[in-house]
Amino acid sequence: MRAALWFMALFGIAVAVALFAGNNQAVVTVFWPPHRVDISFNLMVLLLVGLFMLLHLASRALSALFSLPVEARRWRAQQKERAMYGALMDALAHLMAGRYIRASKSAQNALAQEKSLGVATDTSGHPTGHSDSLASQLRSLSHLLVAESAQALQNKALRNQHLQLALQNSAARHAQEVREGVQFRAARWALEDHDASAALDWLGQLPQGAARRTLALRMKLRAARYGHQTQQALETARLLAKHRAFSPAAAQSIVRGLALELLNEAHDPVQLQQAWAWLDDSERAMPELAIHGASRLMSLHGDAALARSWLVPVWVRMLEPRSELGDNLRIKLITVLEAGMDTLDAEWLARIEAAHVSHPRDPKLQYLAGMACLSRQLWGKARQLLSQAAPALQDKLLHRKAWRALAVLAEQREDETAAIEAYKRAAQL
Fold first, then answer.
1. Which residues contact 334 (CB under 8 A, 6 or more apart)?
2. What sequence ranges are listed for the domain HemY N-terminal (predicted)?
3. CB-based burial, 213-234: b 16+ in 10 Å, e otherwise
4. End-to-end CA distance of the chain
5. Residue 120 confidence (pLDDT) above 60
């Protein structure tokens, strides 16, 4: 379409020139004493056009001649720049291939090429090489590649030297992203050296936006776990779970493990209650945490009533028709309740009795109800419940405790035969 339009335009110009010049009888007279020259107007126009073209070509030729030195300098700068970028790409390729010595040499070669290149300008002030912003970024990346190679070769002195140089060259505002990358690599090297405090320091120097990235949070989680800073690690794990950095199951497992560590770090009931209060509602609702926290509080001789209040949601979940609470957690829950049986209040006794009535064939609830009756010196009912529960219990610990309790009840009745038989049954497991 464009060619057709050009053809039509040229055709129109040709027609116009033919109409104008075909019947043009004008004459141009040039007086040059003592001569007189008469030429046609058309010839005069052609001579003027030819003279203009000749002058234009002459000016172009002179401009090209005088620009040869500048073009030569620009060409040499381009060759150096190509060699510089080629060395940088070679360094990156060698680093990925595990050739760390070659990668370091190529990166240092790129630095040498960049130093010889500089920021060259022509006579008019236009740059003939790369700009200052690109120069600082390239120097930072080259120093970072040398430092990465030195880290792989365990050359800490060379790594730290080029790390500082990379930070210095990325201090400008236009090199902020490069600086963040250098800080991320420094934090990762600190993690590889198992220096948690140094890794946290590097991550703390990041801007607020960069510090909330998934990469930074993952590294912060590792550093906090290495440094045994469980509370900070748990807070970071919550952020990662919120950002969906893990699958839901993995996130729940990580949070649960860190929360268990936080509870285990408490050495007295006050610390344990503070740790429990620091957990959020979803974490306190986890059966594993509730059972472990209650067990830990009782083992530290804390408030048994408070410990049992932590177990109420777990107890409700256990009694649901389609409860997903596993046998291990059920056994742990019953064991924790049994540990505080001497201080069991009327409300919990009513809960245990109602659970046994609603689930009369559950041996674990029969066992718990029997131990509750035993603690209240209801010997007959305790012996009835424990006799029904003991043969059906699959857990070895509960099975052994049930038979020992039956043996104690038999000794109270002075039934030595039943007591010996109960002790034998308890010793078989």
1. 364, 367, 368, 398
2. 28-115
3. eeebbebbbbbbbbbebbebbb
4. 97
5. no
Closest of 165, 163, 170 to residue 149, by C-alpha: 163
Residue 114, classed as helix, strand or coil, is: helix
| pLDDT tens string 14-59 | 777 666 666 777 777 878 888 887 787 777 878 888 899 999 999 9
The encoded tokens of residue 27 equal 């004459």
State the average pLDDT over residues 67-91: 86
Q: Quick one: tokens of 129?
A: 């090489």
Comparing CA positions, the residue from 191, 87, 81 lying closest to residue 141 is 87
Quickly list H helices, 170-310: 176-192, 196-204, 208-211, 214-226, 230-242, 248-264, 269-278, 281-284, 287-299, 304-310
H helix or E strand, kind and range, residue 353: helix 346-358
* Calpha distance 196→219 (Å, rounded): 10
Q: Please report the pLDDT score of residue 123 as a whole number.
A: 45
CB under 8 Å to 87, separation ≥6 — which residues? Answer: 106, 107, 109, 110, 113
Which is nearest to 389 in space by CA: 405, 378, 377?
405
Whether omega for the bond prior to residue 34 falls within 30 degrees of 0, making it cis, is yes
In whole angstroms, what is the distance from residue 401 CA to residue 422 CA?
10
Q: Which amino acid is at 161?
A: Q
Q: Give the contacts of 50 (CB within 8 A, at least 6 positions apart).
A: none
